[in-house]
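Morning, I've got a small favour to ask if you have a moment. I owe you a coffee for this, so here goes:
>
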Amino acid sequence: MSKDYKDMWKGLGLNIDAHDGLLSVLTNAYTNIYLSQKERPKGMSYFDFVISEVHGLRIEELLNAKAKGKKIIGTFCIFVPEELILAVDGVCIGLCSGADVGSDSAETHIPRNTCALIKSFIGFKLSGICPYVETADLIVGETTCDGKKKAYEAFDKITGKVYVMEVPNKKSESDMRLWKQEIRQFAEKLQAVASKQITPEKLREAVRVVNEKRAALQRLSRLRGSDPAPISGLDALLINQISFFDDPVRFTAKLNELCDELDQRVKDGRGVAPAGAPRIMIAGSPMAIPNWKLHAVIEAAGAVVVGEESCVGERNYRTLLDDKFDSIDQALEMIAERYLTIDCACFTPNDERLDNIISMAGKLRADGVIHYSLLFCTIYMMESYKVQNSLKEKEIPFLRIETDYSSEDMGQLKTRVEAFLEMIKGA
């Protein structure tokens, strides 16, 4: 880090000893997993810097924004419209956590057999090591799974900041009406929290900012379809993770700079792995920082991860939002319609997700698909069987992985992934 932030962390009420321990582990993991990679693009230096200042400079920026009257809105899901947050001059920050921290404390509020992502965000708060939760003025949850919607009740008692949006589980006309009402109510909540009105001009500017960020992520995804791949799956995953908490305008500019470099790499035939290396697409549960273990295992085995069919991946940026609206009411309708195109596993039926996985695997020239589910993430574990059957019809190799944030199964994962890659090579 560029300077000592301990006074800032103390002011936020963090547990300094526990927080120092987290940063030490994170730094070591990042050094071993990321900085040891070969043939990294130079443009990744910016994203390395962001990680080095993830609890430093970025938190300082958020506190400076709060001092100027801006509200910090924490979110856990891509169903929460970032455009509306920006339209009230708010700052949107992703709060999902990807490390096994504070599980014992979390289990005083939720069951032991709860998915690692839920345990993690509660554990981070109870352990006093998450400055993002402490800076947030409002924390927005959503009902995309039973575990989360009940956990938000506990999290609200802990923080007193939680607002929950109801996401329907089907996509009928009545479900769309419910969702449109949820979007309107969320807009009203934001205006009340920020003491600012959403105007068409503010909202159009917010839509432009978010669309440009999504377009840059789409560009990165297209470049990953090249063989040899110009960037590792680990680095692309990191970029997608950073997109949830970095300043969106700065992030977009830096990502486009990186993509310019990757464009040249593609023209030069320069990749992070040899041409013809096994190309793997990962589908399923989201991967929050610092959950990098599956990508690390796959790429250490000589393959390259070319895409993520995930909330921390294509599901987040697949669809842009039309900015041709004449009124706020019309804009809110369009926002609701765009966000209900998301093919989360919470929906039933969810055939569009199967179609999107097959389409994405084709565009990225994937040699195989690994379906990743967090343990106890019932909806993704259930859908993995439908995904397997759909891919079997297309003769696309498939592997199901169910794991958590611990390192205890690294050996088993390595064995299974290596066997899967050998099968692909022998096909």
Q: What stands out?
A: The beta strands are 72-75, 91-94, 138-142, 162-165, 279-284, 304-309, 368-374, 398-403. The two ends are 47 Å apart (CA to CA).
